[in-house]
Design brief:
There is one protein chain. The chain is built from 13 helices and ten strands. The chain is an alpha/beta fold and 369 residues long. It folds into three domains: 3-116, GTPase HflX, N-terminal domain (Rossmann fold), CATH 3.40.50; 118-178; 200-365, P-loop containing nucleotide triphosphate hydrolases (Rossmann fold, 3-Layer(aba) Sandwich). It has a six-stranded mixed beta sheet with strand order 6-7-5-8-9-10, with helices on both faces. The chain has a four-stranded parallel beta sheet with strand order 2-1-3-4, with helices on both faces. The longest helix is centred in the middle third of the chain and has 43 residues, at 155-197. The N and C termini lie far apart (62 Å).
Length: 369
Protein backbone atom coordinates (compact mmCIF):
# COMPACT_ATOMS: atom_id res chain seq x y z
CA UNK A 1 0.00 0.00 0.00
CA UNK A 2 1.39 3.42 -0.94
CA UNK A 3 1.99 6.03 1.73
CA UNK A 4 -0.54 8.27 0.00
CA UNK A 5 -3.34 5.84 0.81
CA UNK A 6 -2.27 4.90 4.34
CA UNK A 7 -5.29 3.98 6.48
CA UNK A 8 -5.28 5.65 9.89
CA UNK A 9 -7.14 5.26 13.16
CA UNK A 10 -7.37 8.45 15.23
CA UNK A 11 -7.74 8.40 19.01
CA UNK A 12 -8.02 11.19 21.55
CA UNK A 13 -8.09 11.27 25.34
CA UNK A 14 -10.84 13.48 26.70
CA UNK A 15 -12.04 14.51 30.12
CA UNK A 16 -15.17 12.59 31.19
CA UNK A 17 -17.10 15.87 31.45
CA UNK A 18 -16.15 17.15 27.97
CA UNK A 19 -19.10 17.63 25.62
CA UNK A 20 -19.31 15.22 22.68
CA UNK A 21 -19.26 18.03 20.09
CA UNK A 22 -16.04 19.45 21.56
CA UNK A 23 -14.45 16.00 21.48
CA UNK A 24 -15.49 15.63 17.83
CA UNK A 25 -14.11 19.09 16.93
CA UNK A 26 -10.69 18.01 18.22
CA UNK A 27 -10.75 14.87 16.09
CA UNK A 28 -12.02 16.70 13.01
CA UNK A 29 -8.97 18.99 13.08
CA UNK A 30 -6.72 15.96 13.46
CA UNK A 31 -8.50 14.35 10.50
CA UNK A 32 -7.81 17.49 8.42
CA UNK A 33 -4.13 17.10 9.27
CA UNK A 34 -4.23 13.46 8.12
CA UNK A 35 -5.93 14.53 4.87
CA UNK A 36 -3.23 17.15 4.33
CA UNK A 37 -0.60 14.46 4.85
CA UNK A 38 -2.30 12.21 2.32
CA UNK A 39 -3.72 9.49 4.55
CA UNK A 40 -7.27 8.19 4.93
CA UNK A 41 -9.04 8.22 8.29
CA UNK A 42 -11.14 5.09 8.74
CA UNK A 43 -11.90 5.32 12.48
CA UNK A 44 -12.21 8.31 14.84
CA UNK A 45 -12.53 7.39 18.49
CA UNK A 46 -11.81 8.69 21.98
CA UNK A 47 -11.26 7.40 25.48
CA UNK A 48 -12.68 9.15 28.54
CA UNK A 49 -10.15 9.33 31.36
CA UNK A 50 -9.37 11.84 34.11
CA UNK A 51 -5.63 11.32 33.51
CA UNK A 52 -3.53 9.59 30.82
CA UNK A 53 -2.58 5.96 31.37
CA UNK A 54 1.13 6.01 32.35
CA UNK A 55 2.09 3.24 29.90
CA UNK A 56 -0.32 3.43 26.96
CA UNK A 57 -1.86 6.92 27.40
CA UNK A 58 -5.33 5.65 26.41
CA UNK A 59 -5.51 2.48 28.54
CA UNK A 60 -4.85 -1.17 27.66
CA UNK A 61 -8.51 -1.99 27.02
CA UNK A 62 -8.80 0.77 24.44
CA UNK A 63 -5.57 -0.38 22.77
CA UNK A 64 -6.97 -3.92 22.46
CA UNK A 65 -10.15 -2.54 20.82
CA UNK A 66 -8.05 -0.48 18.38
CA UNK A 67 -6.00 -3.59 17.55
CA UNK A 68 -9.21 -5.46 16.65
CA UNK A 69 -10.40 -2.55 14.46
CA UNK A 70 -7.01 -2.38 12.73
CA UNK A 71 -7.12 -6.11 11.92
CA UNK A 72 -10.67 -5.90 10.61
CA UNK A 73 -10.23 -2.72 8.51
CA UNK A 74 -6.60 -3.03 7.43
CA UNK A 75 -5.34 0.09 9.25
CA UNK A 76 -1.58 0.34 9.58
CA UNK A 77 -1.36 3.63 11.48
CA UNK A 78 -2.57 4.83 14.88
CA UNK A 79 -2.37 8.57 15.52
CA UNK A 80 -2.83 9.80 19.08
CA UNK A 81 -4.01 13.41 19.42
CA UNK A 82 -1.36 14.37 21.99
CA UNK A 83 2.39 14.55 22.51
CA UNK A 84 3.32 11.12 23.85
CA UNK A 85 6.17 10.13 26.12
CA UNK A 86 8.76 7.77 24.67
CA UNK A 87 7.64 4.94 26.97
CA UNK A 88 4.04 5.34 25.80
CA UNK A 89 5.03 5.18 22.12
CA UNK A 90 7.08 2.08 22.82
CA UNK A 91 4.36 0.27 24.80
CA UNK A 92 1.64 1.15 22.28
CA UNK A 93 3.85 -0.06 19.42
CA UNK A 94 4.57 -3.33 21.23
CA UNK A 95 0.89 -3.99 21.92
CA UNK A 96 -0.03 -3.29 18.28
CA UNK A 97 2.95 -5.15 16.80
CA UNK A 98 0.84 -8.23 15.85
CA UNK A 99 -1.39 -5.97 13.71
CA UNK A 100 1.67 -4.25 12.18
CA UNK A 101 0.35 -0.87 13.28
CA UNK A 102 2.76 2.07 13.45
CA UNK A 103 2.16 4.61 16.26
CA UNK A 104 2.48 8.37 15.78
CA UNK A 105 1.60 11.20 18.08
CA UNK A 106 0.24 14.57 16.95
CA UNK A 107 3.74 16.05 16.60
CA UNK A 108 4.93 13.15 14.43
CA UNK A 109 2.03 13.83 12.06
CA UNK A 110 2.72 17.58 11.87
CA UNK A 111 6.40 16.95 11.19
CA UNK A 112 5.52 14.52 8.38
CA UNK A 113 3.28 17.21 6.84
CA UNK A 114 6.03 19.81 7.19
CA UNK A 115 8.47 17.47 5.45
CA UNK A 116 6.07 16.99 2.50
CA UNK A 117 5.40 20.70 2.00
CA UNK A 118 8.86 22.23 2.46
CA UNK A 119 10.36 23.64 -0.72
CA UNK A 120 13.51 25.57 0.19
CA UNK A 121 16.69 24.12 1.66
CA UNK A 122 16.25 26.31 4.73
CA UNK A 123 12.73 25.02 5.44
CA UNK A 124 13.92 21.43 5.00
CA UNK A 125 16.76 22.04 7.46
CA UNK A 126 14.34 23.51 10.00
CA UNK A 127 12.07 20.47 9.71
CA UNK A 128 15.06 18.19 10.13
CA UNK A 129 16.05 20.11 13.26
CA UNK A 130 12.52 19.83 14.71
CA UNK A 131 12.48 16.10 13.91
CA UNK A 132 15.82 15.51 15.64
CA UNK A 133 14.59 17.38 18.74
CA UNK A 134 11.37 15.38 18.78
CA UNK A 135 13.31 12.15 18.26
CA UNK A 136 15.61 12.79 21.23
CA UNK A 137 13.18 11.68 23.96
CA UNK A 138 12.30 8.60 21.85
CA UNK A 139 15.75 7.12 22.50
CA UNK A 140 14.30 4.92 25.26
CA UNK A 141 12.04 3.01 22.87
CA UNK A 142 14.73 2.73 20.21
CA UNK A 143 17.19 1.40 22.79
CA UNK A 144 14.65 -1.13 24.05
CA UNK A 145 14.02 -2.26 20.48
CA UNK A 146 17.74 -2.77 19.83
CA UNK A 147 18.09 -4.67 23.12
CA UNK A 148 15.15 -6.89 22.19
CA UNK A 149 16.63 -7.62 18.78
CA UNK A 150 20.02 -8.42 20.28
CA UNK A 151 18.85 -11.52 22.17
CA UNK A 152 20.92 -13.66 24.50
CA UNK A 153 23.21 -12.63 27.36
CA UNK A 154 24.11 -9.00 27.90
CA UNK A 155 21.38 -7.45 25.76
CA UNK A 156 20.60 -4.76 28.35
CA UNK A 157 24.19 -3.59 28.20
CA UNK A 158 24.07 -3.49 24.41
CA UNK A 159 20.84 -1.51 24.57
CA UNK A 160 22.34 1.03 26.96
CA UNK A 161 25.40 1.42 24.75
CA UNK A 162 23.22 1.97 21.72
CA UNK A 163 21.16 4.57 23.60
CA UNK A 164 24.32 6.53 24.39
CA UNK A 165 25.50 6.22 20.78
CA UNK A 166 22.17 7.46 19.47
CA UNK A 167 22.19 10.38 21.91
CA UNK A 168 25.62 11.43 20.70
CA UNK A 169 24.63 10.96 17.07
CA UNK A 170 21.50 13.11 17.42
CA UNK A 171 23.38 15.78 19.37
CA UNK A 172 26.02 16.01 16.65
CA UNK A 173 23.35 16.06 13.94
CA UNK A 174 21.54 18.91 15.70
CA UNK A 175 24.80 20.88 15.96
CA UNK A 176 25.50 20.51 12.21
CA UNK A 177 21.97 21.52 11.19
CA UNK A 178 22.11 24.60 13.46
CA UNK A 179 25.43 25.59 11.88
CA UNK A 180 23.89 25.44 8.40
CA UNK A 181 20.82 27.39 9.52
CA UNK A 182 23.01 30.11 11.02
CA UNK A 183 24.30 30.88 7.51
CA UNK A 184 20.75 31.53 6.31
CA UNK A 185 19.90 33.51 9.44
CA UNK A 186 22.95 35.77 8.96
CA UNK A 187 21.85 36.43 5.39
CA UNK A 188 18.37 37.32 6.67
CA UNK A 189 19.83 39.77 9.21
CA UNK A 190 21.81 41.49 6.43
CA UNK A 191 18.64 41.72 4.30
CA UNK A 192 16.74 43.32 7.20
CA UNK A 193 19.53 45.82 7.82
CA UNK A 194 19.46 46.77 4.13
CA UNK A 195 15.69 47.29 4.34
CA UNK A 196 16.08 49.58 7.35
CA UNK A 197 18.88 51.51 5.68
CA UNK A 198 16.58 52.19 2.73
CA UNK A 199 13.65 53.02 5.01
CA UNK A 200 11.66 50.00 3.79
CA UNK A 201 8.95 48.98 6.26
CA UNK A 202 7.85 45.35 6.64
CA UNK A 203 4.41 43.86 7.19
CA UNK A 204 4.00 40.22 8.24
CA UNK A 205 0.90 38.08 7.78
CA UNK A 206 0.17 35.78 10.72
CA UNK A 207 -2.77 33.59 11.63
CA UNK A 208 -4.10 30.13 12.26
CA UNK A 209 -3.37 27.61 9.53
CA UNK A 210 -5.70 27.52 6.52
CA UNK A 211 -7.26 30.98 7.01
CA UNK A 212 -6.15 32.29 3.59
CA UNK A 213 -2.87 34.05 4.43
CA UNK A 214 -1.16 33.24 1.13
CA UNK A 215 -4.30 34.21 -0.82
CA UNK A 216 -4.25 37.57 0.99
CA UNK A 217 -0.55 38.04 0.15
CA UNK A 218 -1.41 37.39 -3.51
CA UNK A 219 -4.34 39.86 -3.38
CA UNK A 220 -2.26 42.62 -1.78
CA UNK A 221 0.88 42.21 -3.91
CA UNK A 222 -0.36 40.78 -7.19
CA UNK A 223 1.85 37.71 -6.77
CA UNK A 224 0.67 34.22 -7.65
CA UNK A 225 2.00 32.08 -4.81
CA UNK A 226 0.67 28.57 -4.23
CA UNK A 227 -2.42 28.67 -2.03
CA UNK A 228 -4.44 25.58 -1.15
CA UNK A 229 -7.37 24.72 1.08
CA UNK A 230 -5.11 22.60 3.27
CA UNK A 231 -3.47 22.92 6.65
CA UNK A 232 0.18 23.98 6.40
CA UNK A 233 0.12 24.57 2.63
CA UNK A 234 2.80 27.25 3.20
CA UNK A 235 6.00 26.51 5.09
CA UNK A 236 8.57 28.69 3.38
CA UNK A 237 8.67 32.43 3.93
CA UNK A 238 7.02 34.24 1.01
CA UNK A 239 7.90 37.88 0.39
CA UNK A 240 6.16 40.33 -1.94
CA UNK A 241 6.35 44.06 -2.64
CA UNK A 242 3.40 46.00 -1.28
CA UNK A 243 2.50 49.25 -3.05
CA UNK A 244 0.71 51.76 -0.80
CA UNK A 245 -1.32 54.09 -3.05
CA UNK A 246 -2.06 56.83 -0.48
CA UNK A 247 1.59 57.65 0.22
CA UNK A 248 2.95 56.32 -3.12
CA UNK A 249 5.43 54.23 -1.12
CA UNK A 250 6.55 50.61 -1.00
CA UNK A 251 6.68 48.10 1.84
CA UNK A 252 7.54 44.42 2.03
CA UNK A 253 4.85 41.88 2.87
CA UNK A 254 5.80 38.44 4.22
CA UNK A 255 3.72 35.33 4.74
CA UNK A 256 4.49 32.97 7.63
CA UNK A 257 3.76 29.37 8.59
CA UNK A 258 0.23 28.85 9.88
CA UNK A 259 -0.20 28.43 13.62
CA UNK A 260 -2.11 25.57 15.20
CA UNK A 261 -3.06 24.71 18.76
CA UNK A 262 -0.90 22.48 20.96
CA UNK A 263 2.31 23.16 19.07
CA UNK A 264 5.14 22.70 21.58
CA UNK A 265 7.58 25.63 21.92
CA UNK A 266 10.51 23.58 20.54
CA UNK A 267 8.61 23.13 17.27
CA UNK A 268 8.04 26.88 17.01
CA UNK A 269 11.69 27.49 17.85
CA UNK A 270 12.75 25.22 14.99
CA UNK A 271 10.97 27.53 12.55
CA UNK A 272 12.93 30.53 13.75
CA UNK A 273 13.67 31.90 10.28
CA UNK A 274 10.13 32.02 8.91
CA UNK A 275 8.85 33.32 12.24
CA UNK A 276 11.67 35.86 12.51
CA UNK A 277 9.92 37.82 9.76
CA UNK A 278 6.96 38.22 12.12
CA UNK A 279 9.22 39.05 15.06
CA UNK A 280 11.01 41.82 13.14
CA UNK A 281 7.97 43.26 11.34
CA UNK A 282 6.78 46.85 11.77
CA UNK A 283 3.15 45.74 11.44
CA UNK A 284 1.29 42.43 11.73
CA UNK A 285 -1.80 41.43 9.77
CA UNK A 286 -3.60 38.86 11.92
CA UNK A 287 -5.78 36.98 9.44
CA UNK A 288 -8.88 35.24 10.79
CA UNK A 289 -11.25 32.95 8.89
CA UNK A 290 -14.55 34.73 9.56
CA UNK A 291 -16.53 31.74 8.27
CA UNK A 292 -14.98 29.35 10.80
CA UNK A 293 -17.29 28.78 13.81
CA UNK A 294 -14.17 28.22 15.95
CA UNK A 295 -12.46 31.47 14.97
CA UNK A 296 -12.47 32.80 18.57
CA UNK A 297 -10.53 29.77 19.84
CA UNK A 298 -8.10 29.97 16.93
CA UNK A 299 -7.59 33.70 17.51
CA UNK A 300 -6.62 32.97 21.13
CA UNK A 301 -4.11 30.36 19.95
CA UNK A 302 -2.47 32.90 17.63
CA UNK A 303 -2.39 35.55 20.40
CA UNK A 304 -0.67 33.08 22.75
CA UNK A 305 1.95 32.18 20.13
CA UNK A 306 2.62 35.86 19.33
CA UNK A 307 3.15 36.42 23.03
CA UNK A 308 5.56 33.46 23.11
CA UNK A 309 7.47 35.04 20.20
CA UNK A 310 7.66 38.36 22.08
CA UNK A 311 5.62 40.36 19.56
CA UNK A 312 2.38 40.84 21.50
CA UNK A 313 2.97 44.62 21.50
CA UNK A 314 3.71 44.95 17.76
CA UNK A 315 1.04 47.07 16.02
CA UNK A 316 -1.46 44.86 14.23
CA UNK A 317 -4.59 44.82 12.13
CA UNK A 318 -7.14 42.04 12.53
CA UNK A 319 -8.31 40.98 9.08
CA UNK A 320 -11.43 38.83 8.81
CA UNK A 321 -11.04 36.89 5.57
CA UNK A 322 -13.65 34.92 3.55
CA UNK A 323 -16.25 37.67 4.06
CA UNK A 324 -18.08 36.45 0.95
CA UNK A 325 -19.06 33.28 2.84
CA UNK A 326 -21.00 35.14 5.54
CA UNK A 327 -24.33 36.91 5.49
CA UNK A 328 -24.69 40.53 6.57
CA UNK A 329 -26.33 39.36 9.80
CA UNK A 330 -23.45 37.03 10.61
CA UNK A 331 -20.89 39.77 10.02
CA UNK A 332 -22.97 42.20 12.08
CA UNK A 333 -22.97 39.80 15.02
CA UNK A 334 -19.17 39.56 14.93
CA UNK A 335 -18.87 43.35 14.52
CA UNK A 336 -20.97 43.91 17.65
CA UNK A 337 -18.89 41.39 19.58
CA UNK A 338 -15.67 43.17 18.52
CA UNK A 339 -16.98 46.71 18.80
CA UNK A 340 -13.87 47.86 20.73
CA UNK A 341 -11.41 46.02 18.46
CA UNK A 342 -10.64 47.57 15.06
CA UNK A 343 -10.96 44.97 12.30
CA UNK A 344 -11.45 44.71 8.55
CA UNK A 345 -13.58 42.43 6.43
CA UNK A 346 -12.05 41.14 3.18
CA UNK A 347 -12.40 38.36 0.67
CA UNK A 348 -8.84 37.78 -0.47
CA UNK A 349 -10.05 35.33 -3.10
CA UNK A 350 -12.45 37.87 -4.68
CA UNK A 351 -10.43 41.01 -3.95
CA UNK A 352 -13.14 42.56 -1.77
CA UNK A 353 -12.08 45.06 0.92
CA UNK A 354 -8.45 45.11 -0.24
CA UNK A 355 -8.33 48.85 -1.01
CA UNK A 356 -9.59 49.85 2.46
CA UNK A 357 -7.11 47.48 4.06
CA UNK A 358 -4.25 49.02 2.05
CA UNK A 359 -5.29 52.50 3.23
CA UNK A 360 -5.18 51.35 6.88
CA UNK A 361 -1.77 49.69 6.40
CA UNK A 362 -0.46 52.91 4.84
CA UNK A 363 -1.89 55.00 7.68
CA UNK A 364 -0.16 52.87 10.36
CA UNK A 365 3.18 52.59 8.55
CA UNK A 366 3.32 56.25 7.52
CA UNK A 367 1.46 58.21 10.22
CA UNK A 368 3.17 61.53 9.45
CA UNK A 369 2.59 61.64 5.71
Amino acid sequence: MSQEKQKAILVDLIHPHMLKRHAMERLVELEELVNTYGGIVIVKTWQKRFAPHPKTYIGTGKVAMIGEEASKLGARLLIVNAELKSRQVYDLSEMLRPQKVEVWDRIDLILKIFAKHARTTEAKLEIELASVRHMGPRIFGMGMELSRQGGGIGTVGIGETNIERMKRHLKEKERKIKEKLETYQKGRVIQRENRRRHGLKTVSIVGYTNVGKTTLLNALTGRKEYAANKLFATLDTRVGQLYLPSSHSMALLTDTIGFIKDLPPELLNAFASTLSEAVEADLLLHVVDGSDPNFSKHTRVVEEILEHLGVASTPRITVFNKADRLSGAQKGKIDRHLVDQPHFWVSAEKGEGIEKLLEKIDQLLNPHR
